[in-house]
Each structure stands twice: as C-alpha cells, then as structure tokens.
Amino acid sequence: MSASPVGSDRPPVDDAIPTDPSLPPVAVPADELRTRWTWPKIALWVAIGLLGGVAWTMLALVRGETVNAIWFVFAAVCTYLIGYRFYSKVIERYIVRPDDRRATPAERKQDGKDYVPTDRRVLYGHHFAAIAGAGPLVGPVLAAQMGYLPGTIWIIVGVVLAGAVQDYLVLFFSMRRGGRTIGQMARQELGRIGGTAAIIASLLIMLIIVAILALVVVNALGESPWGVFSVSMTIPIALFMGCYLRWIRPGRITEISLIGFVLLIGAIIAGGWVASTEWGAAIFTLDRTTIAWGIIIYGFVAAVLPVWLLLAPRDYLSTFMKIGVIVMLAGAIILVRPEIEVPAFSEFAGGELGPVFTGPIFPFLFVTIACGALSGFHALIASGTTPKLLEKERQSRFIGYGGMLMESFVAIMALVAALSIDRGIYFAMNSSAAATLGTVEGAVAFVNGLGLAGVNLTPDMLTSAAAAVGEETIVSRTGGAPTLALGLANIMQAALGGPALAAFWYHFAIMFEALFILTAVDAGTRVARFMLQDSLGTFLPRFRDVSWRPGVWICTAIMVAGWGSILILGVTDPLGGINTFFPLFGIANQLLAAIALAVVMAIVAKRGRSYAKWLWIVAVPLAFASVVTITASMYKIFSPVPAVGYWANNAAFRAALDDGLTEFGTATSREAMEAVVRNTAVQGTLSIIFVTLAILVIAIAVGVTIVAVRRGGGENTEDPPVPSRRFAPAGFLATKAEREIEKEWEALPGRDRADRTSPAHS
C-alpha cells in the first residue's frame, strides 16, 4: 500500500486487488471520497467549534454557584462531532486505510451462523448494544462524588482520544485477520509468552465482567414483574425480526425497524398493565435466583443460535430503546435546563475516603467511570462478534469509532442525571447500609455529618423522594442504577407529564437499565465462546472451526458455567461470591484496554514506516491507561488504608478475629468476618495476577514495537485479500456517490442481485 497525499481524504488502496467487470462497482472510486469544502460546510463546522468552545468555557472556567445542565449536552455533542469528522478521519487515512474492494470475513467465510454480512445499521445497533453494558450507566453516577468537572473531562475527551480509537482499531485489525479475538491476535503479534498472558488475562477478566453485568440485571429485575415481562418479550420480538429479515422480507431494514419499535413500545406498555393484574404479578414476580438461572440459560442459547436469529436483531431492537431514551433525556435537559448545584471539584476530590467509593481522584476516578471513556470489554466485542458481521471495510469507522461515541454520550447523560439530584439525597442513596444503617434517620445523620457545603438533609426529603417514585425507601440504593433512575425521572417529569408520571419514569428507567445491560451479557457470552475456541484451537485445531457444532456447544457450556457459577454465588451469598470480584471490575476492565492498545500498537508498527509516524495516536492512550491501571492496582495491593487496600483490609479483619470480636466494620457476625478475610485474599491475589499479566503483555508489545520501527516494519499477519462481490454504504446515510452505485446494483438481474441481497445480507 502507498501513502495518501497529505491533506487528502483519499484512503490508500491496493491496486493489485482485481474486481469482477461483470458487476457494478464494489467500492466508491477514490476520487469520490475526497471532501469538497464549501463555504456553508466551513461555516457549519466553525459554528460547531464555537458552540463547543462556549460550552467548555461555561463548564471549566465560568464557575458560579450553579451551572446549567445544557452546557454538558452542547460540550459533549460538539466534541463528538468534531472528533468523528476530523480525528477519526486522520486514523482512517493514515493508520487504517480501508479498501472496500477487499471482501470482509463476513463475505468470504459466510456460513449463516457466525459469519453473516449484516446491514451496517443493524450491526451498529448490535455493536452498540453489546458494548454499552453497566459501565456507562453506573460508573459516571458513582464518579459524581468527585464533582462534575473531572468526570466530564474524562468521559468526553477520553473517548475521542482513547476509547473510540481502541474500538475502531481493534475492530478493523480483527476484521483483516478473519475476525480473530484479541487474545489470538496477541499470540500472533507478540509471540507465545505475550500471547499466552493476553489470552489468560482476557478469559479471566471476561468471566468476571459478564458475571457482574448479569448480576446488575438480576438486581434490577428482582421482584419486578413489569421489568421481567417487558425484557422477556424482547426475545420473541427479536426472533420474529430475525426471521422477517431472513425469509419474509430480506433487506427491508426500515420496515422491520418500525415494526420492531412498535412491538417494543407495546411490550413496555403491556408490562405495566400485566404487573398491575393479580395473575401477572403472580407469574412474573420472580426471586433473584430464578432470574439468574433464566439469564444463564438465555446466555447459552443466545451464544449457540445463529447470530442473525436472536443476537443481532435483539441488540438492534434494544438500541431503539437505549438511544431513544438517551436522546429523549438530552432533549428534556435542553427543555428543562436544570441547574447543577454540585461543585466542579467536591470536598472528596482531594482525599481518598469518600462515602461512595474509596481512593484518590487519580487514578480511581478513571477506573470507576471505565466504560464511558475507555473499556477493555469493548476490545472483546470488537474482536468477537462484530468483525464477523462487517459487510464492508469502510463501515468499521462508523461502527467502531461512532458506536463508542454514542456510549460516551450515554455516560454523560447518566452523569448529568446524577448531578441533578439534591446532593444530600445523592449521598444517602449511594452510601453503604453500614454507613446509613439502612434507615432514613441514619442516612440523615450520616450525610449531614459529612460537612458538605449547602447540604442540609431532612427525613422528609428522603421519604418524599421515595414516595414520588413509588418506592418504600431510597436509602442506600447503591450501585448507581437507582440514582440514575431517580435523576431521569426528575428531569423527564418536569418535561413531560408532571409529578404524576414520576413513578412511571422511575420504573421505566429501571427496566431500561436492565434491558441495556442484558444485551452485553448475550454478546459477551458469544465472545467468550470465540475466545475459548481460539485458545483450545492452539492445541486441538478442530475447535478453531466455529462451524463445528460440538466445539461450539462445549466451549459455550464451559464459559457459561464459569460466569454462571459466579453469578449464582453473588445472588445467593452477597457477602461472598460476586461481591468478591466487583471492586476488580473497573481495574480489570482498564487493564484489558491497556492490553488491547498494546497489541494494536505492535500491529501498527509492523505495517511499515509510513504508519509508524502515527504511532502516537495509539501510544498516548496506551501510556495513560497503563499508568492509571497499574497505579490503581498498586493502591489496591499495597495501600495500608483498610478501606482502600485489599491486604490491609484482610489484615484488619484477621486481627479482629484473633482478638475474639464477633462484629467488625461492615460484618455483623464471625461468619461474615471470615468471609471478608477470604474475599479480600481472593481480591488481592487476582489483582496481583491481573496487573502482572498486563505489565508482561505491555512490556513485550513495547519491545516488539521498537524492533518493528527500527526495521521499518514486520511480519504481515493479515489474511490474503480476496475480491469483494457486494456493495454497501459506509455510514448511516448513503452519500450521493453511494446512492448512484446502489442504483446500479438494484438494476442487476435477479441472479446477480441475489449475490448481494441474499438472506445473509440481513
């Protein structure tokens, strides 16, 4: 490949790739990809830049007693637009260099199960739904403890320079390698030691991540017949959508989108009615253990069924709700214009013993927010299901970079919802039951004792807030989800319906969050299966064949049993089980991101000298993620403060047991104290394992990168190019040039046209 001229929007292509002269073009001609700047376009982007600049000025510099929430929306949207239009274009032009004349794995390996050329809009929905789990909803809510500015900067700036870069590059490089997982790519690029370390870390971290995501769903749906009914109905709706696109009306994306949207809204409305009936409450009021087993069974089924039948349409369907709710919330914020009374930097920003989460602002703010700005879990999805469904190479920018920007917007909206709540109520909801005693009186005493400026919490404030949303209590409703629901309900009822609809919006948000997170569980399970198949395939090559059904069933069963057992432990024994791993979620997730960026950096360096000068685009976020996560791991391993360090906490509880105490800290019995000793030992041990594996992978990747830069390149591990025989636009909306080519394809005789619009196309 040759480099493009500086200043050109024309991505370099391999002129050696032949095309079938009997078919219309499979790619937009290079000349048509050049941006033609006009004065209206220039004026538009100048206006976007100015609006974004004003918004950031209001947030970062003009600090009065309050700040209007609309500036968060404007700062985020303007930054995303500029980042997508310009920064991602630089990445596409100088690092990715896609060529739509090459067939993607979905086209050349098409099997109707895992490799399926999928319409870009459906795939965007699937990818976004899969990556957007608990992180963008929960992390920003917890990070509000530190004030509004640190979290806002990391979520918005971090995603443009780090999170979206990782997702885009991992997706593209995996697609160029047949859809291989990040662990398998690490093995190819970094050798046996680095690759093995990356694979072990990825598999262990994946089990923890999926189990935690599933637990959040269980807690959100527990004893909630409305949520259980509505979320359950999305499964048959998705099956219908998959069959509709496969056999009834292939390629009719807009048509089935409208049908699916109507059915989804119907399921939500029907859920409220069913829950209010005696029979509905009896059938759909399920305990948490039953829901957990249901999710385990669903995870197995979703991972073994053809991707077009359940996974892709269900994730696409849930995206309607996800993006719709977030856009609706943003519109309500602009309409209501709530004033944020939280300071830019809170009283806890300079310490390490906050009531919501412990640890100093650096590095713990960054690992707490996690998915909203940078997430290693995304690298598993971007090298799992999505690259096997990508129809054309140039679509990777829209899906990889653009999908991550949308998740960041979800995180910003979650942060604003949390900031809009009275500060006293926020801390009463997010402080542990050990601190508030689980009572209104205890919460009032605890929060007022924190010494927060301008906060004077009263019992009536807590009881009134709970009654307004139809809850018995909101005290110590930790985990972020209830706080987001309350904030969303407060903003939405001010915009639509008034106080009478506050309870509706609250429970709607709870169900929305459960649906949001469950989609990451099904995709995560499928990716976990791919990872294990890749790993076993090193020793037993038959397992690497994803079409070999015994291997699919065996690997799926092993991975589901892994995260399912952790989930059951968390549901049945909250003091042990999954709570052992929850504090590891953020750090492990970011360590995985550092591993993914390290692998990507090595790949870019091996591509040659013309790519190496753009290595800083990967090296900068890798350096930052490495410093943050390794520092956080050192805190958790070596901190002498029991509230921060695992081993310090372990020693404190062991000493209490040796002294014969029957209660200590949050534990109210010797059994509970012994569980804390056991749990902190597991936490500390896993922290050591994770950070050691990550440091090993990063160090090897840096060495490989240096060697490749000095040699001017390295081994090319991409699959050999195969000519494409299909066409599809690159972005959400087709350009004029793309529409013209689509017309040529539509005019083909039925036999040739079927090659492009086969059932797999859907």
UniProtKB/TrEMBL annotation:
It is found in: Cell membrane. Signal peptide: none annotated. The chain crosses the membrane at residues 42-62, 68-87, 128-147, 153-173, 193-218, 224-244, 256-276, 291-312, 319-336, 356-377, 398-421, 504-525, 546-569, 581-605, 614-638, 686-709. Coiled coil: none annotated. GO terms for biological process: cellular response to starvation. InterPro entries: CstA (IPR051605), CstA_N (IPR003706). Residues 68-632 form the CstA N-terminal domain. It is a multi-pass membrane protein. It holds the Pfam family CstA. Keywords: Cell membrane, Membrane, Transmembrane, Transmembrane helix, Transport. One of its GO terms (cellular component) is plasma membrane. Belongs to the peptide transporter carbon starvation (CstA) (TC 2.A.114) family. This is Carbon starvation protein A. It comes from Microbacterium lushaniae.
